[in-house]
Amino acid sequence: MSESLVLLGIIIAASSGVPGLLLGRTSISGQWVTTFLAVLGAALGLGGVVWFWATGESHPVVLQWSLPGAEFRVAIDGLSAIFLVPVFLISLLGNIYGLGYWKQTEHPQNGRKLRLFYGTMTAGMALLVIAQNSILFLFGWEIMALSAFFLVTTEDNEKEVRETGWIYLVATHVATLCLFALFAVLHAANGSFTLGPLKPETLRPGAATAIFVLALVGFGLKAGIMPLHIWLPSAHAMAPSHVSAMMSGVLIKMGIYGLVRITSFLPHPPREWGILLLGLGVASGVLGVAFAIGQHDLKRLLAYHSIENIGIIVMGLGLALIGRSLDRADWIILGLGGALLHVWNHALFKALLFLCAGSVIHAAHTREIDRLGGLAKVMPRTSLCFLVGAVAICGLPPLNGFVSEFLIYLGLFGTLMNGERRSFAGSSFAAPALALIGALAVACFVKVYGAVFLGTARSEHARHAHESPPSMLAPMGVLVACCFLIGLAPLLIAPILQQAVSAWAPNLEVVGPRLATLAPLVWITVMGLLLIVALLLGGAVLWTRLDRRAVEEGVTWGCGYVAPTPRMQYTSSSFAQMLVGMFRWVLRPRTHQPKDLPLFPPATSFHSEVPDVVLDVVVLPTFRFTAWLFSWCRVLQQGNIQIYLLYIFLALIALLLWR
Amino acid sequence: MVPLLDPLLIVALTLNFVALGVSRIRGVINAVALQGVLLGILALFVHPAIGTRVILLVAVTVGLKGFVIPRYLVHALREANIQDEVKPGVGSFMGSLSLGAVGTGLAMVFSDTLPLAEQHKHLLLVPASLATVWTGFLMLTTRKRAIMQVLGYLLLENGIFMFGLLLLEATPFLVEVGILLDLFTGVFVMAIIIHHISREFASTSTEHLTELKG
Amino acid sequence: METIFHDAVHILLALGLPPLLLGLIAKTKALFAGRVGPPVLQPYYDLIKLFQKGSVFSTTTTWVFRAGPVVGLVTAVIAVLMIPLAGATAPLSFTGDFVLLAYLLGLGRFFTASAALDTGSPFEGMGAAREVTFACLAEPAFFLGMLVLAKLSGSLQLADMLGSSLASHWTADGESLVLVLLSWFIILLAENSRIPFDDPNTHLELTMIHEVMVLDHGGPAFGMILYGAALKLFVFGALVVRLAFPRTGGSPWLDWPIFVGGMLVVAVAIGVVESIMARLRMTHVPVLLVAACLLSGFGIILLVR
Amino acid sequence: MTLALILVPLVAAALVFAVPANRWRPWLMPVASLGHSILVVFALQGPPVRALGGWLVLDPLGKIFLGFVSVLFFICSIYTARYLNLGHERPNRIFCVCFLLSLSMMTLVILSHHLGLMWVGMEATTLAMAPNIYFYHTPRSLEATWKYLLICSVGIAMALFGLFFLAYATLHTSLEPTLLLDDLVQHAPELSHPWLRAAFVLVLVGFGTKMGLAPMHTWLPDAHGEAPAPVSAMLSGALLPCAFLAILRVFHICNAAGEGAFSREIMVVLGLFSMAIGAIFMTGQRDLKRLLAYSSVEHMGILVFGIGIGGLAVFGALLHVLNNGLTKVALFLSAGNIQSAYGSRSTEDVSGAIRRLPITGTLFLAGFFAITGSPPFGPFLSEFTIVNAALGRDQFLAGALFLLLLAIVFIGMGSTIIPVVQGDPPEAAAQPGFRDGFLTSAPILVSLALVLLLGVYIPPPLESLLREAAAFLEVKR
Predict the structure, then answer these.
(1) Measuring CA to CA, which residue among D302, D286, D172, D330 is closest to residue D240?
(2) Do A639 and B210 touch (CB under 8 A)?
(3) Do residues A321 and A427 make contact, with C-beta atoms less than 8 angstroms apart?
(4) Is the ipTM of this complex over 0.95?
(5) D406 contacts in A (CB within 8 Å)?
(6) CB pairs below 8 Å between A and D: how many?
(7) What is this structure's pTM?
(8) Whole-angstrom Cα distance, residue C114 to residue D72?
């Protein structure tokens, strides 16, 4: 039942864009029909998931398929249920948001294309999440990847967008090829394309390692784990915002899903893998947020935060793997539970943030943080939503971000607690790193929120911005509600997470510790409510105080300077300057400043940027070098027929002498 | 085996050198033509059991290789009023001649190592064919004139044909004729192309044909 | 009964004592400077006065500016209720409470800094930037210290980590505890923007951190900020005290006075430091904080090596 | 029946030669090839086909190739007819005649079980295609034709040499020299192995030249680049696979003789080398059709590689013949449309194809994704099968290189094709002129639809046929 509902939803979502194609370029009705179908499909999918949770039963749908080794086999288990929720939820909200954000009348060129691929991407992701057969999985995977490519290049008439799309395409195809190899090795190990746990007895020595490494590279490229993140920032920045929300909130999680799924197949993962994942997670987390602090582009900044959060998720997964190799149920539950919950949370607040960013761009026509400012006055609702998202992504109570990080903290500290002295204490060093990540995130989002929404407008556009239409505000509202719900009542989620974890580690005995007993979820609720009540109380106190006493309005105290202008405000770059300086060794910021100015300096300009090191220093040079090498090889084909005939002769000799 | 076989083959081999060494295209054409005729006659000696099939085959071979194709080439030569001097593309005549000599020697040595059937040991046919093939390759890769390359191709075919003589049973008449027909058509089309080339570039040197690169 | 008594005392102390510490610090500094100095109870007078005052709000500000002080105060109050004071379990105590503690303070920081940016004044922006930047280094140091305590106590609850059982470890693993103590004292100075990190009563905005952030606040709002700062000082002070003298005699009549005494000693210590040291150059501040991280880092390494 | 398959196009060619009207002549080609296809359908369903005393046999391999070639011809002939009528009043008599001749000759190659006869057919196809490459009578096309003709003839001569060796290998056995495939396979183990090996090498190099395996591929980019689009499509879609079939025949014998390991090894090496050459020359390639030509080199490499790997990969390779052929046809034909619209093949002049020619542009992009092996298109399935077999049979190095080369190919090809499709078309191309028409886009659409179908669903009869053919090649005696 649940499977059929989800499949129905997938079909409807996939075909949602077609009617729009048939209707005119600027037809409002096409837009409405498409959106309605997409929403319907997503709703059905969510219904299927809820049904699965309610009944807890799953009946795999199996159909014959006349491809070698392929079999149409889909089933929902705890893991796929977890990942299905963001797919459908964010898609649903994103489609509604698109009504106002990407009006067909305003974008006759690409509106229909965008809606079509939005649907197919949703379908592809949902399919790969429930697929139980490698080939079916690959189908879903590639449908998702290609749709994402077309979505990123929605405005392909801009050069920058084309380049971005190209980098994304290369990255995703390399990932796909890694998956080819991965599934081939799996097939060799398991003897079938049906995805299932590996049998230790048939497993060849090197196979498990090969599987893990291939999965790490293939899925890591999609998830954007640190050195593999090259495509991510610009892709998120260039895409339309509700697409960015989908990509950052859901698409990169598909990489995580793959990693989780594959690791669940490995019988006895060596502890080094867990350590490796933990290290990668720390690297992605710290560096991701460090890069984010250096950005001026609102959406680019949010994209780097996706890398950071992926890092946190990977840390949780690594912890779970360590727990698996040491048979520590509590580490598995806390680590994986935290990771999966963070998958949800990140989907929620990152989608929220991207939608808010979309509203900002929609209203102020720029992504440059330093050209915005003072939007809290002109678009109060959006700014409130953004504030909630910001607090949530910093992992601050009483919102959802805190809960997942809390679980991971408990798990990491737990690694200290296993009796003998020199156990896995090393891994507990990830806890301070997580703290560092949190603090950096706070710094970064204070900067963003302050520079974009507070103070006074730095440009005309920002001054004349306007609040977004309800069709854009409503989805944000829903996301805000979800953030509060999970943040205040994590106990509701506990059974779902428990189910997922036991799907990941079946050998985890059923009577083992429960998440609810390992983590004081009730206390989180209590403290959250207490915090909110106290805040209201404090607010009331201040309000009454101000009510009684004289309150005057005045200009900001400029420390004696009487005519402050918007340009005097602290910009985001100056706010970040110290932190960027601390991370100079990896960020390699570039500054263009005037040299030796005269005594009375003329009008001049200062400009600083933080490019992506991995892309600019490693990847692109490698590509250029290879291209140069290849162009050099062209001397082989100089059009001289005598030489060509010689080639034939030489090939003949060479092959004749072959043994 | 018939004693006359080896002398004929030696003549054929010498013709290779003539083809390599002569500086006039006509000369080369004639050499190749004569070799064709020899091949036809060879067929008679290789297969003492002379049947109508062999006779016919010889007739066709001699006719095509010995007369039709050379005539046609000469005609094309006149058509395209190609001047009748050729220089080897790489090195001198001496160079290509000595290369040919080395090749021939190697062919002799190499063919001794080949696991030939009993009746074909001590038979000059195999080395001769290898040597001729080698000569053809040499001509194809060292001559700049398109027409000379055609002749090289013909030498190549001659060499292969020589080997084919060893096993006429394997290749029925129909196939043999088909092969010869293909050969003729090939030369025919090539000649047409050469004609176009000479019209297009006012010369038949393949130096002009290096536009398509990379 | 016991617990109710303890909680009552806890709440009274936690909410009443903090301003006194400020006063004590000021008094100590005055004595060092050879002045009489303000009365020890001066902070209380200030607070009362501020809550009587009216206030001025900049036209650029929004509700965030008003929310800043409230959040700052409320988070500090809740934090103070989570610290085990005299070896007794705090009113709010559960597994992993220290994580929540740290993040609550983070929430407070988020809003005070945002409030500063809300004014659109370059100076306050500067202050906010410094505040959040230095916090980035203080946070890991705090958690590294917590690692040591968690390893020693085998528990993730402040009540046990800073409980009386800690005393026994002073003999076994004293060296790492000393390191943590040092590092936490540095954090205490940094988080409460004390010399050598920041001079609370400097008058040059360019050199301030915390003070410049709250430049535009006045009246009750500023009162809340002051009180919140005092509570924060109390929180970190209590951490240091519990770490330094974890031993408890069992009878509350003994423990509470010991604890209060400890707090006063800490206040005096801060005063002494402020009197004998000069403010660091802003560029050297991170170095000192990194040093704090390294100290507690060595602490845990000594423990698990 | 069998002879009809060969004769129908021949007769049609004669008819076409007779038709005077330049305008209507081309339309006889679709008719003729439709007739051919119908015959093929009967042949495929009907009883096992034998003629000329076992010289012409329709075995499983033949069935696959025959059906495939016939379909391809039909699709292309429609496009060609339209193409020839597009404005240019160039005389097309020779063109149409040769077009149909090549169809008949390919049928001969596919059917003949007498290797000599097969050779005759192969050489004939070479000659029949030459005038069509020279269709435009430009100096460049002249050069291309010359190279095509000479290199292929020399190569095929080598193949003949190889076939003679093969026949010679029988001298050591009881049976008297023969070139009949069935006898050779039957008595394979008795054949003298040195001659057999030499024969295989010679045939591989010889027909490999025709098939476009590096380093004998040199004629291929020139010919594909300069020939009219449909001719390029036929060359890479049908002609190269025929040469592949010829190689398969001899490989079949080697395999039966127990020389499988030797030949497989050579094929793997040669396949990887061809893929590498294709990849190297595709990166930074400015000329669209040359790009596609090098892609053909790469995919011929994939075919040989697949056979070399063996096992399930043979199935994959045979499937890839269909996938690659159909996709190549789609790509070349859409490249033809693009060239007609922009008046250029160079990436400097062509951009924004998807805006200038919405249908062609979209199909071109889809074709790119298909040929680079993205699901859900057919090539994905065949390539994945090959990779899977390679890694499954512990050929880890080969498999890894295969994947690496696929990645390079994707990057190299995409860096040329994506900019062609995306962006805004240059002003020069904005003027009205060539537009997407039904007859110019339908063939592309059909072939891509077939590729997509093969990707998501292989009709059971086809699958059983493929399995049969793979088993047929894998004979162990």
Answers:
(1) D302
(2) yes
(3) no
(4) no
(5) 177
(6) 158
(7) 0.93
(8) 68
Find out whether D246 and D118 touch, Cβ atoms under 8 Å.
yes
**Residues A555-581 pLDDT 10s:** 887 777 777 788 888 888 889 988 988
Residue partners of D121: CB distance under 8 A and separation at least 6: D105, D106, D108, D109, D112
User: What pLDDT does residue A307 have?
Assistant: 95
pLDDT in tens, D3-48: 888 888 888 889 888 888 777 888 888 999 999 999 999 888 877 7
The pLDDT value recorded for residue A418 is 65
Query: What would the two tokens of residue D426 be?
Result: 């240059």
> Rounded to the nearest 10 degrees, what angle do helices C122-153 and A400-414 cross at?
40
Instruction: Note whether A647 and D215 are within 8 A (CB).
Output: yes
Q: Which residue has the tokens 């001198």?
A: B92
> At D321, is the secondary structure helix, strand, or coil?
helix
Phi, psi of D346 (to 5 degrees): -85, 140
Are the beta carbons of A645 and B141 separated by less than 8 Å? yes
Beta A72-74 vs A61-63: how paired, if at all?
A: antiparallel
* Rounded CA separation C18/D74 (Å): 92
Indicate the helix (H) or strand (E) that contains A552.
Answer: strand A551-554
By three-state DSSP, how is residue A128 classified? helix
Residue among D378, D376, D207, D217 nearest D296 (CA):
D217
Residues from chain C contacting residue A566 (CB–CB below 8 Å): 120
* In the predicted structure, residue C226 carries a pLDDT above the cut 90: yes
Q: How many angstroms from the chain centroid is the CA of residue A163?
A: 21
Residue B213 has its nearest CB partner, among A638, A645, A649, at A638
Q: Taking Cα atoms as reference points, which of D332, D370, D339 lies closest to residue D356?
A: D339
Q: Do residues A364 and A375 touch, judged by C-beta distance below 8 A?
A: yes
Comparing CB atoms, the residue among A146, A157, A183 nearest residue D369 is A146
User: Do the strands A61-63 and A590-592 form a parallel or antiparallel pair, or are they unpaired?
Assistant: unpaired
Q: What is the three-class DSSP state of C81? A: coil
By C-alpha distance, the chain A residue nearest D383 is A180
CA distances from A500 to A28, A47, A504, A628, D368 (A): 42, 18, 6, 49, 39
pLDDT value at residue A421: 47
User: Looking at the complex, does the CB of residue B140 fall below 8 Å from at least one CB of chain A?
Assistant: yes
Contact status, residue B12 vs residue B134, Cβ threshold 8 Å: no
The residue among A633, A636, A645 with the most chain B CBs within 10 A of its CB, best to mutate, is A645
How do beta strands D50-51 and D56-57 pair?
antiparallel
| Binary contact (C219, A549; C-beta < 8 A) | yes
Question: D111 or B198: whose pLDDT is higher?
Answer: D111
Q: Is residue D138's pLDDT more than 70?
A: yes
CB atoms within 10 A of CB C4: 9
A461 vs A373: CA distance, rounded Å: 10
Among residues of chain A, what percentage have pLDDT more than 70?
A: 98
- Quick check: B182 and D167 CB within 8 A? no
Q: Give the amino acid at B83.
A: Q
Pick the closest to residue A582 from C289, D389, D115, B202 (CA basis).
C289
Asked if residues A513 and A327 have their Cβ atoms less than 8 Å apart, the reply is no
Q: Say if D310 is an interface residue toward chain B (CB within 8 Å).
A: no
Angstrom distance (rounded) from CA A411 to CA A430: 10
Contacts of residue C111, Cβ cutoff 8 Å, sequence gap at least 6? C64, C67, C68, C71, C72
Tally Cβ neighbours within 10 Å of residue A536.
12
Token duo for residue C276? 């004998």
Q: How far is CA A469 from the centre of its chain?
A: 26
Per-residue pLDDT, D187: 84
Query: Residue written as tokens 């597009």?
Result: D86
Determine the Cα–Cα distance for residues A356 and A389; give it in Å rounded to an integer: 9
Angle CA(B27)–CA(B29)–CA(B32) in degrees, nearest 5?
A: 110
Q: CA angle at residue A502 from A498 to A505, to 5 degrees?
A: 140
